[in-house]
Structures
1.
Amino acid sequence: MGAEFVQFSLTPILIGVLSAIACALPGNFLILRRQALIGDAISHVVLPGIVVAFLVSGVVAAIPMLLGAAGAAIVAVVLIETIKRLGKIEPGASMGVVFTTMFAAGVVILEKSDTSRVHLDVEHALMGNLETLIWLRAEGWHSLFDPAALASLPDELIRIAVVCVIVVVLTLVFWRWLKIATFDEGFAQALGIPSAGVGFGLVVTAAVAAVAAFEAVGSIIVIAMFICPPAAARLMTNRLELQIWWSAAFATISAVLGYVFAGYGPLWFGGQNAVSAAGMIAAVSGGILGLACLYGPHRSRVGVGREEAT
Amino acid sequence: METQAPRSRRLTIAAEDGRVSGPEDVPSDAPLALRGLTVSYSEKPAVFSVDATFPANSMSTIIGPNGAGKSTLLKAALGVIPRLSGEVFVFGSPIENARNRIAYVPQRASVDWDFPATVMDVVQMGLYRKVGLLGRLSGQLTTRAQDCLDRVGMADFSHRQIGQLSGGQQQRVFLARALAQDADLYLLDEPFAGVDAATERAIIDVLKLLKSGGKAVVAVHHDLSTVREYFDHVFMINVRRIAEGTVNTCLTTKNLQATYGGRLAAAHLAQLAVVEGAG
């Protein structure tokens, strides 16, 4: 764990952990609101938005990407409504068609446009570029206290760190609103809590986390992190406060173990090359969910409808 | 009580005249007054131009057949669902200024009881108006939440996960949460739906204590056979207002037929209604 680790592994692991936590926190509430697929939808729909934003602005920067993602979300909502009405099909089908089509369109636009100057191509959109986000200027742990070296940290790390802090602060500040409005929307409204605003703010926060995580780790991790750590956390406890902690812990474990397995796992089994860190992180989070399903202390509660609760 | 009787009689007469009363008729101290409330989910209104006045120091009920807009009326009054038009006054002020004085018990089936929370977590939600978004929950408030559980006979369940409760116990927890709000007006949506007899008894006892403590209670109710036993003021609705007033004046065969149409057998009606002319 010397200079090489700091140079090549520290920043990708940190970016992976921060991305995972930023997505897992809002994911807890999305799952409890039976809106888990919204996280999935967001991570699909933002791709064409980000690509178009890049083509228009010519840079990979936070603000244009957020605007592009927001624009794509609006287009998605309009398309869903239009297809639902004109096609007279159920909302779920309409959503499924729009999300996949927009994601596919994003992939095609990306492939056909000249993005060779930046880390934005089809492979990165899916799997991110975690392995390339290294800290070359670092010479060891002491570089953490060297301003010159710190200035050369990857921009992606700074951005995801800022977003992660924002997500944590929002979760803490609006904790009571989130808890009450997620459990009992009508009661929250009667108390004067703006329930609809809380729901909207949650989706916007999830979208911001998705966009920030997207550029570093790709859409595979985003989709996995919205759902796997919170779902596994729900199986570990019957209290929301503890569930949030469990989800953050699972997100961290997934990111660290996933990165290590991707980098060294193939070598242990006699392979030559590392595998995709993003894919391995998502796979580890799925493995954790699987273990929680088998051994989690409160697994019997999940999925038990209110009819059965006697 | 003495000042209330003439007022409710006046309103009952006004209703029979078919005169639409305006906001100027809102009694300054009525716990809940609705004026011209209209709610629509689609093109057909679910609640149409309803005026209602629920008096102080009384147990009021909203009755009507399925789909008549009972729960819709309550939810629209609270702003839980949007109203197309109409005004809501709580103790004479617009409801937005009086949320501190209202406690609300939604239908038990309206929430997911698999939510990761203990009984105490849910009751403490009723303290929200006292602590606000970021305030600290003092020991005194925690004690009060525990007292509220005690009042509904659930003192030993505070650490239980809410999904592990029976339907009746869940309903008691909801009532305890409303008690924690320490309100002057209690609005309950079907509080006796799907609960055991002991719970129904416990709930009605708590509500009667509230009434004797000077609070107003308004409950949506669907069991006509207990209306007379539990409540003293009744509001009958079938999309529009059919009648309102004391149980004795309102629960007549004529009004019940107007509210429920052909859905009540004649024999059933005769059993429920006050003998004609007695009111």
2.
Amino acid sequence: MQLRRKIIDKLNGFWMITTLITILVLPLVICLGLYIKAAPIFEQHSFLELVFSSKWEPSRGSFGFWPFIAGSLYVTLLSFLFTAPVCLLAALYLTQFAPRALIRIMHPVIDVLAGLPSVIYGVWGILVIVPFVSAISVPLSDSPSSGYSVLAGGIVLAVMVIPYTLNMLIEVFNTVPNGLKEASLSLGATMWESVKHVVIRGNYPGIISAYGLGIAKAFGETIAVMMVVGNVVKASGNPFNAAYPLPALIANNYGEMLSIPMYDSALMFAAFLLLIIILVINLFFRLLIHKTKRL
Amino acid sequence: MLEEKFFIRLSALFTYSLIAVLAFIIIVIFYKGFAALNWDMVFKTPRGGYYYGGEGGVLNAITGSLYISIGATLIAVLIGMPAALYLNVQLIRYRRTQNTIRYFLDALWGIPSIVYGAFGFTLMLFFGMNASLLAGIITVALLISPIMVRTFDEVLCTIPKGMHEASLALGSTRTETAFRIMFKQGFPGFITAVLLSFGRGIGDAASVLFTAGYTDNIPVTLDEPAATLPLAIFFQLGSPIPEVRDRAFAASIILTIIILFISIGARLLSKRYSKTNLK
């Protein structure tokens, strides 16, 4: 009996550690797998050439990813501009000022917003945001836009990223010791002054990390952006014009990927690039959060 | 003083506007899709001429989505549940290691699903498979495993250490401690983790785009391709025919209802099971 329990314990411990290791090496395996698939394109072009060239003619063998990277950066930047103030103030309100009843309602609201599939956001974007952008483009821009544009992508992306960033900010602000705020209040500062100087200033690393992770999340979002952004290979500065972000490139072209030489490894390179960028941002900002949490 | 008033009002406005946005999204989806929603949508597969406005529904996509996310959730439970228990039972004395592992898991959570999709595709080519139910299940399982571990772990690490020590002191092995004490105490968290992963799996389109394929039939074996609900919406929305586009909106209602049920269910179930917990 004793022996049986011990054997089960040993076997089970082995199973458990195997699963944990499997999950932990997963990113390495993904990196490796994508790199091997992308390797053929490295033999013909250098890394910098691939990233910074803007010549995209797959049938002639030239693969410049710059228009796509620029498109991704532009959409992400716009969405960041929308999310940053909303998330910061809403997180402050929810952690410092809000009545209890509101907090009870907000939890499920944030959960559902975070849980809605991206294709639903895409449908909503097509129904609401695209016509809206098209309408405001008439007075604001010299060329009327169809609405399928960087701006529409940015707005839809912002709504998708808000619950994610907001959740992290709430977590960050909840770690502020009450004593610190009370000390500030007892010195005669008003509530808002205490919030500004104690809650915000004391949490710069946390706030920046939450923003950084939100940006990484926005950068990799695929379907919703792809549905509203227009998907035209052309880098331009006008937010009412269409763009073609990197994830959309991968998702749109998998069908013809095997028919043009080198195209498949070019797309796998795009996925590899996306993975590396997002993994680096994640590792960096998560480190910042973990470091501050331990204090 | 003016500044204070302004900012508090503004932040209240932003907070309430989030509720408004959620309501707006749900109302728009229901309003647009309601006209085309009927029982045929839910209980029939596409018939001939469906994509030109003919008869049929999206049963193929609903079952495909369910098959893929149930399969993927099962695999994720098999991988994720023991991993989370190991992290909280065997490694409990090594705070440093625990934190490092949590750090990597958090970073893993951030990898976008299109990357998992591309990776699943390379795996598929490597093993010489075609786009199929099995490939879809494996890809989605990889996508949701980190979510499963981290969500379950989040609850496990709040269990008082004394409970764990008491179990060991009574002579149970670590396995028994893990499954009889920690798993039982963490059960509400486990339910949340399962439902959250399931919801993520059923709503994700980018990972199954390459791997699961698309078909009008209900898959019977693992090596057949399978349609999924998000992709059904996506493809039908691309059609120039208004009837087909209306059906995409109706399918969006179905998907939204599934997700709402999962969210609400996760809340209710975890509340119900945490009542019986020792505190």
